[in-house]
């Protein structure tokens, strides 16, 4: 498959999985939407870096999501990144899972209400910013 076909296939697969979750399960709708947005951004070419701090490379104290630098930031580096959004450990793990998980297991986790709120904010701003920059 060409890259374009493969991306179309991945997008279609994501849509179908998401529709299934909305219509056939009682999973939190805001969590479904957040996962969908983050995964879509990734398929469209904006995969955030979730292995370590995008700025200094540390894996310790990952506390923020940087919109402008596309990924996780540690406590120190986020001090100078005014647009970075605070996230708790649960949100951090959820975003990491969303990026790394195989398509069929994408929706196979749950997080607390507080984490869902953080994830909702991050996924919304991230996808909006990336789409605005690239497709306007
Ligand atoms: Zn750092």
Number of individual domains: 1
- Could you tell me the mean pLDDT? 95
Give the biggest sheet. Answer: 3 strands, antiparallel
Let me know the CATH homologous superfamily: Recombination protein O, C-terminal domain
Bound molecules: zinc ion
Model regions low in confidence, pLDDT < 50 over at least 5 residues: none
Top-tier CATH class: Mainly Alpha
What is the overall number of helices?
5
* N→C terminal distance: 28 Å
CATH architecture: Up-down Bundle
Could you characterize what this model shows?
It is built from five helices and three strands; from the N terminus they run ααββαβαα. The chain has helices at residues 3-24, 29-43, 75-78, 89-100, 113-135; strands at residues 62-66, 71-74, 85-86. The radius of gyration is 15 Å and the shape is globular. With 136 residues, it is mostly helical. Zinc ion binds at residues 53, 55-56, 58, 73-74, 76-77. Residues 53, 55-56, 58, 73-74, 76-77 line the site of zinc ion (ZN).
